[in-house]
């Protein structure tokens, strides 16, 4: 039995944490003054094939080589995640820190995605259950903020876009880790049960998904309420639920899909960028059995996709496997994987990227736009078509040369 054991699973160094947090702050800071990059792919008509592209058959024949229509859809859902970052108030000195900078009606337009064909219908919030000492009440907001804006729900409303997609689409988009308490939840990686029959997930992610604040519903309650409302409004139409997120947002997206398929029985697809592991093998089986599909976009050089816990490869049975499972540290990879690599990028600045840049959402979109197949990783036109995706990334690299205090 071969074990894939990651020594960095349970402890993230302060240096790495700072770099990753800084990456998100800088990308957002640039985004607020420059329009986010726009995909260069022309939107391709999906029509009656929409269930295939939502993963009904686990994207068989669409990933290697990467189907152009699927590429276009992945990049499009990446834009919803970019909007979640752009709309977030990163300024710890601001009285509106950790909230959305924009109302539902203006969020997409003010976050670089005015032509999405979707309308935001609800803001979403995540709350940490980490117990804080009494003195934290006197601490700065950036240290003690327990609830924060994590993303939004949107629904397709443009008739041309609905016709192109072949159905009405509900999107749930999540940003990645920002606040101090979110970082603390990230390192709570012991598995906890979420249902009967031993489906188990990382306790920190589950906490952020299910914890209520004094005057605020949990993220799970907000999602359920809004999805239930939208399914009722559009009950006579073909409809899909697509959850997309980056990093922590990708993990929350998988939990959301698990919850939605069990609560509503509707085809729910996750488009995950740079997501960590979320749960055990039983959790993954229950998710797929209920109608959930997960497409994990992974950068080989991104350490976040290799944590937490470890994976027992080969699916072997035995007392060792049983004992390890009982420790609460045996995870499983959920869904299908689209594996990319910074080392295959046509750009030297991407190939030379550090831990933070390999995890950057802009780099992920650049790699998706570049990828052709495992035998021929880079498309001939990749160098030209990737310029838009890397405008933010290039400015970020330039600014991070200055040390941060």
TrEMBL record:
It comes from the Eukaryota. InterPro entries: AB_hydrolase_fold (IPR029058), Fungal_lipase-type (IPR002921). CDD domains: Lipase_3. This is Fungal lipase-type domain-containing protein. Keywords: Chloroplast, Hydrolase, Lipid degradation, Lipid metabolism, Plastid, Transit peptide. It is found in: Plastid, Chloroplast. One of its GO terms (biological process) is lipid catabolic process. The keyword Transit peptide applies. GO terms for molecular function: phospholipase activity. Residues 171-310 form the Fungal lipase-type domain. PANTHER family: PHOSPHOLIPASE A(1) DAD1, CHLOROPLASTIC (PTHR31403:SF54), PHOSPHOLIPASE A1-IBETA2, CHLOROPLASTIC (PTHR31403). One of its GO terms (cellular component) is chloroplast. Its main location: plastid. It comes from Acorus calamus. Belongs to the AB hydrolase superfamily. Lipase family.
């Amino acid at each position: 039995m071969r074990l894939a054991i990651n020594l960095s699973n349970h402890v993230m160094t302060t240096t790495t944490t700072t770099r990753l947090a800084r990456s998100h702050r800088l990308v957002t800071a640039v985004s607020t003054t420059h329009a986010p990059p726009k995909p260069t792919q022309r939107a391709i008509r999906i029509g009656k094939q929409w269930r295939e592209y939502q993963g009904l058959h686990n994207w068989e024949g669409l990933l290697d080589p990467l189907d152009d229509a699927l590429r276009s859809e992945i990049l499009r859902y990446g834009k919803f995640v970019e909007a979640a970052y752009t709309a977030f108030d990163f300024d710890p000195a601001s009285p509106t820190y950790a909230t959305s900078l924009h109302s539902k009606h203006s969020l997409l337009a003010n976050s670089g995605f005015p032509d999405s064909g979707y309308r935001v219908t609800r803001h979403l919030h995540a709350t940490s259950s980490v117990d804080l000492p009494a003195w934290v009440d006197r601490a700065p907001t950036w240290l003690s903020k327990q609830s924060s804006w994590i993303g939004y729900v949107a629904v397709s409303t443009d008739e041309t876009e609905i016709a192109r997609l072949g159905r009405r689409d509900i999107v749930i988009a999540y940003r990645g880790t920002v606040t101090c308490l979110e970082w603390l939840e990230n390192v709570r990686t012991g598995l906890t049960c979420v249902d009967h029959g031993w489906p188990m997930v990382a306790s920190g992610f589950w906490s952020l998904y299910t914890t209520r604040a004094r005057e605020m519903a949990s993220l799970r309650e907000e999602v359920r309420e809004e999805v239930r409302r939208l399914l009722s409004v559009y009950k006579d139409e073909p409809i899909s639920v697509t959850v997309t997120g980056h990093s922590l947002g990708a993990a929350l997206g998988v939990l959301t899909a698990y919850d939605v398929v069990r609560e509503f029985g509707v085809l729910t697809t996750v488009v995950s960028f740079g997501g960590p592991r979320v749960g055990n093998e039983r959790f993954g089986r229950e998710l797929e059995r209920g109608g959930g599909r997960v497409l994990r976009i992974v950068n080989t050089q991104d350490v976040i996709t290799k944590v937490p816990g470890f994976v027992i490869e080969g699916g072997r049975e035995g007392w060792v496997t049983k004992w390890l499972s009982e420790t609460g540290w045996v995870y499983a990879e959920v869904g299908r994987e689209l594996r990319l690599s910074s080392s295959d990028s046509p750009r030297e600045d991407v190939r030379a990227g550090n831990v933070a840049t390999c995890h950057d959402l802009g780099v992920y979109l650049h790699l998706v736009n570049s990828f052709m197949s495992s035998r021929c990783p880079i498309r001939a036109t990749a160098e030209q078509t990737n310029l838009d995706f890397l405008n933010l990334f290039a400015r970020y690299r330039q600014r991070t040369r200055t040390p941060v205090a």
